[in-house]
Amino acid sequence: MNAADRLSLVFAALADATRREILSRLAEGPATVGEVAAPFEMSAPAISQHLKVLERAGLVTRTVHAQWRTLSLQTEPLDEASAWVEKQRDEWNLRLDALEEHLEGLKKNEAKKQ
After folding, report:
1. What beta strand segments (E) does the chain contain?
2. What's the CA gap between 33 and 9, in Å, rounded?
3. What InterPro entries does this protein's entry cite (predicted)?
4. Domain of 25: which CATH number?
C-alpha cells in the first residue's frame, strides 16, 4: 500500500465520530473489545465493523491472549496524517503570504498613479 492510499484509509476512518471515540478510548491504553464497545448503544456487529475499518487503516491492532482480544492504538498513521495536514497548511500559508504581498504591491502602484 502506498502512502496516499494509507492516508485515504486513515482519513476515511477518522471521518466517523464513533471511530474517533474508539481511538480516544484506546489512547488511554489497551482495552478488550467489550471494554471498547461498552459505552456505545449499538450492536456488536456494528462495533466490529468500526474496528475493522480502524484496523484496515492501521490505527488499531488486535492481539489474542487465550480467549481475550485486546485492542491497541497505533499512532504512526495519525502522525502521517498530521504531517500531511501540516505540509498542506505550510503550503497554503506561503501562497497566502505571496498573495498578500502581491495585493500590497498593487495598492502601492495604485496610490502612486493618483
Report:
1. 31-32, 60-65, 68-73
2. 21
3. ArsR-like_HTH, HTH_ArsR_DNA-bd_dom, WH-like_DNA-bd_sf, WH_DNA-bd_sf
4. 1.10.10.10
Q: Rounded CA gap, 51 and 56, in Å? A: 8
Separation CA 69–CA 42 (nearest Å): 19
Ramachandran angles phi, psi of 31, nearest 5°: -150, 155
- What is the domain range of residue 42? 1-113
pLDDT digits (tens, 9 = 90+) for 76-99: 999 999 999 999 999 999 999 999
> How far apart are the C-alpha atoms of 34 and 44, rounded to whole Å?
9
d(CA 81, CA 4): 10
* Single pTM value for the model: 0.81
What's the order of all strands across the beta sheet hosting 31-32?
31-32, 68-73, 60-65
Residue 11, C-alpha cell as written in the block: 482519513
Report the b/e string of 3-31 with b at 16+ CB within 10 A.
eeebbebbeebbeeebbeebbebbeeeeb
DSSP label at 72?
E
Q: How many structural domains are present in the chain? A: 1
